[in-house]
Amino acid sequence: MDKTRRSLQNFFYEREWKNCEFKVLHNDKHHYINMDSLIDLIVDHTHPEMQQKVYETMIDIEEKEGNMYAFLKHLYKIYLISHYHGKSNQYYIVF
Questions:
Q1: Which of 5, 79, 62 minimizes the C-alpha distance to 39?
Q2: pLDDT at residue 87 tops 60
């Protein structure tokens, strides 16, 4: 888990996205969170077996499409697919 967290942090810092805010939907309310909170959501709510896949896909998408929106759109799909089912407080990244 720590490896995934570090990989995600490095990915965001290298692209100077550390000051970006991300809009998330939680319990039917919109919230704006920072990069560290987004990373916490990804790591804490993604199945351990999927975490490396999330990071690998981030790199792959950026190399192919090279923009933040495409990266987040694909990350969102992976996040939903890999999210544990049955949690009472589910988070969704929204655009």
A1: 5
A2: no
pTM (2 decimals)? Answer: 0.54
Coil vs helix vs strand at 76: helix
pLDDT tens figures, 49-65 = 666 666 676 667 666 66
Contacts 24+ apart (CB under 8 A), 3-8: 4/42, 4/43, 4/51, 4/52, 4/54, 4/55, 5/39, 5/43, 7/55, 8/39, 8/42, 8/43, 8/55, 8/58
Taking the C-alpha atoms of residue 87 and residue 95, their distance in angstroms, rounded to an integer, is 22
Q: How far apart are CA 47 and CA 82, in angstroms?
A: 6
**Contact of 76 with 9, CB cutoff 8 Å:** no
> Quick check: helix, strand or coil at residue 56?
helix
**CA distances (Å), origin 46, targets 63, 64, 81:** 23, 24, 9
Domain definitions of the chain by residue range = 2-93
